[in-house]
Amino acid sequence: MVSTIGFQIIQFQDRLVLRTKKPVKVSKRQYNYILYKDTQSAMSIPLLIDEKQQAFAKQLATLVEVTQYTSIAGGIFMSLLFRVFIYSVWSFLNDLSTLTNLSMISIAVPGIAHYIQSFILSLTYLDIKGLYR
């Protein structure tokens, strides 16, 4: 599995190398030290991140991976949901256009259906004043 985040848990220790450019003579009470030219000494520098922080970084990496999968699945779900919503809106607009075309044909609608049809047609024409008659 390839992760999109370049995060590594492995750490390498740094090394500090000291090298003399000229001879150095150090005298202490009982001892005399002489460091000749190009004498070198090296030591490893301890890690700045301890095991607890490494465990936290590993947990964070797994959390990021889970979040990636969740957001992809959530994006697909929201896309389908919005697609259904937009389809419903377009279907409703198509039905309203059919209703406006029906008003061009004079058909006698009996009883209460006439009032319901006139109410829906006033909504279709956005005739707000006609709603309160």
Describe this entry's structure for a reader.
By secondary structure, the chain is α+β, with helices and mostly antiparallel strands. The chain contains 3 helices and 4 strands, in the order ββββααα. The protein has helices spanning 51-102, 112-124, 128-131, and strands spanning 14-19, 24-27, 32-35, 40-45. The strands form 2 sheets. A two-stranded antiparallel ribbon has the order 1-4. A two-stranded antiparallel sheet has the order 2-3. β2 and β3 form a beta hairpin. The protein is rod-shaped, with a radius of gyration of 40 Å. It starts with 13 loop residues before the first strand and ends with a helix.
Derived structural class:
alpha+beta
* Topology as a string of helices (H) and strands (E): EEEEHHH
Distance between the termini: 68 Å
Total number of helices: 3
Q: What integer value in Å does the Rg equal?
A: 40 Å
Estimate what percentage of residues fall within beta strands: 15-25%
Major β-sheet annotation: 2 strands, antiparallel
Overall, the morphology is rod-shaped
The side-by-side strand order for the widest beta sheet comes to 1-4
Number of domains: 2
Secondary structure: helix percent: 40-55%
